[in-house]
Design a protein that fits this description.
Two copies of one chain form a homodimer. In chain A, about 70% of the residues lie in helices and about 0% in strands. The first copy, chain A, is mostly helical and about 210 residues long. In chain A, helix 5 packs antiparallel against helix 9 and helix 8 packs antiparallel against helix 9.
């Protein structure tokens, strides 16, 4: 029962934060939307930030719930599964009239510089997203769909970054074109051979 | 004299908005930082949004001021100039300890869904960025540095989107690696031939 109420608050908060951002979301507004009595917030959460961090976990689970069935669909070759993930979200954002974007990406932009606790949790969540792609790319390698030399970790990270940037462009251009462009470029990177991308990992120490 | 004061307010506002975001920036805070007397804000600006829109123009000019000398440096081949632009910002963000990111990108994330006036102005600013790359890519084509079939408009747009997403990742991972990964992947896309990217423009009408 307690867990039900807590979940209701998190779910309502996630919806509002997705639309308006974290700072712009008031606790009272969340409680109203959840239909939960005033004053019960601090029974469930230590602080607004405690609540916000749990909303990130919720977003993470929501994302995995959407992507996992596609990523694990062994009826399709791995590369096709990656394409299906892109298509799934292209359809989703068309339905949302090119609004909202990725809640994890939004919070990264909003909170990345302002809170270390948020930054670390968001980075872990973005890493989780990349791991799904890495796993699919590793399988695509095994099935000889892509170059054996492709650095799957770096490529997976680039896919997620490029996706987040494309969502940003979608929001201001109110067009699905940036997401389709992302799909086109990423699939191109994966299917064109002879990449220089097979070299070692990018160093964090110098830009040479 | 009047223009000086107005410029001081915009400059101070830009700094604070870059760090904290638009909604989080108070007018009084901006006036204090600019060293301008209380109450003079509405002498120069119709509203906070009027001020915010002028700050976007300021960011746009600042960006062009940074990039133009590199983009127009005819001593370097066009592809090398693109690489130098990436390196310029990699150095810049290393100096900023991986904070701040692109103010236009930040505002796109924050305001894209909330204000049509902001959305349109930000989209125009992002298009301006893409035009710099398109122009360099067109020159690279002329000088036979890149594939004659590359769609320079789409590639330029993808470069800007991917860059914004990489900045987002930089902020939460507090690492320059995402920007280097962007550089590596984009230069790879540009220098590897036989791309499927030479096909027609991405349609906005369907995701087929």
């Amino acid at each position: 029962m307690k867990q039900d109420t807590k979940h209701k608050i998190i779910e309502a908060g996630a919806r509002i934060i997705h639309l308006k951002g974290y700072y712009h979301t008031g606790i009272q507004e969340v409680l109203d939307a959840a239909g939960v009595p005033k004053g019960s917030f601090y029974f469930y959460f230590k602080s607004k930030d405690d609540f916000g961090l749990q909303v990130i976990d919720f977003f993470n689970s929501m994302y995995l719930g959407m992507v996992d069935p596609i990523a694990k669909n062994k009826a399709l070759p791995p590369l096709k599964r990656i394409e299906k993930i892109f298509d799934y979200f292209i359809d989703l954002f068309q339905g949302l009239n090119y609004t909202c974007g990725c809640p994890i990406g939004n919070l990264s932009q909003e909170m990345g510089d302002l809170s270390q606790a948020f930054g670390s949790k968001l980075a872990a969540s973005v890493d989780d997203m990349a791991q799904i792609y890495k796993h699919l790319l590793d399988q695509a390698k095994e099935e000889k769909e892509i170059s054996q030399g492709l650095n799957t970790q770096e490529t997976a990270e680039f896919i997620v970054s490029s996706w987040h940037g494309s969502l940003m462009k979608m929001k201001i251009s109110k067009s699905i074109a940036p997401l389709k462009l992302h799909k086109q470029f990423i699939l191109d990177i994966l299917t064109v051979g002879n990449h220089s991308l097979v070299s070692g990992p990018v160093s964090d120490q110098s830009n040479e």
